[in-house]
Amino acid sequence: MQKKDTSRRxxxxxxxxxxxxxxxxCSGKTxxxxxxxxxxxxxGEKVKLLSIDGEVVEVDKAFLKPVPDIPYPLSxxxxxxxxxxxxxxxxxxxxxxxxxxxxxxACNHMHHVHPGQNWLKIYAMQDAEHTAPYWQPTTCxxxxxxxxxxxxxxxxxxxxxxxxxxxxxxxxxxxxxxxxACPYSTRVFNWEKPALPEEIAGRDYSCETSVPQKxxxxxxxxxxxxxxxKGELPHCVTACxxxxxxxxxxxxxxxxxxxxxxxxxxxxxDKAGYRLMxxxxxxxxxxxxxxxxxxxxxxxxxxxxxxxxxx
Amino acid sequence: xxxxxxKRGVIWTAMLIxxxxxxxxAYYRQLRYGLVVTHMGDYVSWGIYISNFxxxxxxxxxxxxxxxxxxxxxxxxxxxxxxxxxIIAVSAILFASxxxxxxxxxxxxxxxxxxxxxxxxxxMWDVIVISTYLVIxxxxxxxxxxxxxxILNEQKEKNMGWWNxxxxxxxxxxKGNARQERINQKAVLILSILIIPVAFCIHTVTSWLFATxxxxxxxxxxxxxxxxxxxxxxxxxxxVIAMYIFRKIYHLEQYITEVHFDQMGRVLVLLxxxxxxxxxNEYLVPAFKMKKAEEAHLVTLFTxxxxxxxxxxxxxxxxxxxxxxxxKQGRKPLPMFILGIMVVVGAWFKRYLIVTPTLxxxxxxxxxxxxxxxxYFPSWEEWAIAIGSLAGVLLxxxxxxxxxxxxxxxxxxxxxxATPEK
Lengths: 311, 422
Prior knowledge:
In chain A, 28% of the residues lie in helices and 16% in strands. Chain A is α+β, with helices and mostly antiparallel strands. Chain A has a five-stranded mixed sheet. Chain A has a two-stranded antiparallel sheet with strand order 1-2. Chain A has a two-stranded antiparallel ribbon with strand order 4-5. The radius of gyration of chain B is 22 Å and the shape is globular.
């Protein structure tokens, strides 16, 4: 009797499984992952990881699951909304900058900015006759009251809920009102057909990568939201060998330049951070730390430029 | 009334068409290669296209001045000038809309203004008020033309060939009976009232394209009134030029008399003084404080690169004409004609001075961008398109005058009959 029962149960079970298998076969192979994927053989290669509690743990490499890349392209709607719960902010430490321009070249390279133009500019600043000169890199300020967004007639440049201001080059009519409105001179215009490699030019435009730039439209720094989605830092941050740029989320109250991580509120308070042209009421998302206790003399910035031209 | 072109007329028209064609060729090059054919850059991102646009909008304001403000003010001497003013207004506003499309990086996306339009943007306000002004101006040109079309239709043998069909199409329904007259007069009266706020809007909103930004030289609460008063001045100057030319060519001495020049001279003096007042507010008040950002801008205007143009537009285009027109001899037709040209030319450069020098003084220094972006002088394509658009305005006026009576026949007859009674 018992034996009969089990065989009957087995029969039913196998029948169900075949049915499910058939269903899976019909709906596409991705619906079921093969069961043997769970059986991991330790490779012996260990990787150090940071746990949620802040402890360093060692894990065998074979146990790491590859995180699938964010499926691009995102829809235009998703790109316009931004990443929920985030509010991105940048801190630029002027005491560390010596006009090396690695940030600029990385930015230009990754965004295929037209030769001669720059989204990231490094100014030699001197506020008054007797005050000390310093190097000031400027990105887009990603203002919370963005004058450019206010004046755009077609919603081609827009402010996202994560604080980033982006441009939809497929919608921009090229009136350049935003360029006149921006007090930080951050925007550039594609006066001619941008010089792009063919495979880049052929891509669909994405607001998050700002690539490919299009003739007759406006371009600018985008805070690299495509990198942030991948859990990486913007190109200027990673390219700077002096750790000038800190990027982070003001909601998490943390900023990092890759090597060092700070509590944003502490950093800005302790080092007397400020924003550019506060009096205009644009409320930038980029904070500056004043050029005190500098790592380099101002003149070193001039020297590197000379060396570059000599080389 | 319509006349064939004389020899001079043919040369004049051919020259205008040629200028338009050169402009069209330059625009073709711009469409093909992009705005790189202009000498604009990331700093001077608006050049003579925009200053030309402001000039056209300014000059078009005269339609409302002569047709509406004078009419409502019960000023009758201006009746023979209404059509001149109105055709200047219509053609200038047409080319204002055209030149703004020329300035766009992606003109083929114009439709985005309607699909994705944001009413918060001053550009949308400009689109709305300019199209409204165009419609009202066209009606103010057309409605008073109806009784004259009747006269034209009654004199078929005097007209040239197929134009009769045009007159019939435009005015065939007009019987001139009491009911139609009443409706027409009422409509013109309503439009005359309507066009005044709309006229103030078009130029105030145009000034806001600049005043809503933070830039030194543009960031001014004075801008609306400054633009509107300047617009009335240049428009009145244009009417004086047109009066003189039409009077000479079409022998209209009987209708456009020396009295008209004298009266327009007085109007011009008043408008010039008004504009001078706003200029003083615009330049002297910031110059008294010399805020850092304003200083660089004001110094280039007063003593720097733009000083010759600045003082020319202020003195030759405003102060000197106003002084000369204070004297009776200065309000004779020929001096008025010359002064009118000075006012209009000065006004064109004035618009250039409003747009360009400001853009050369951004808040952060000009840096890390190509050298050619640090100064601005228009390329030949920009000149060709700007001159072509000016020629286009004159071409429309030229053709209009040839086809339709430039002096409102009916209204002037009524006016002349009414005058002795007073």
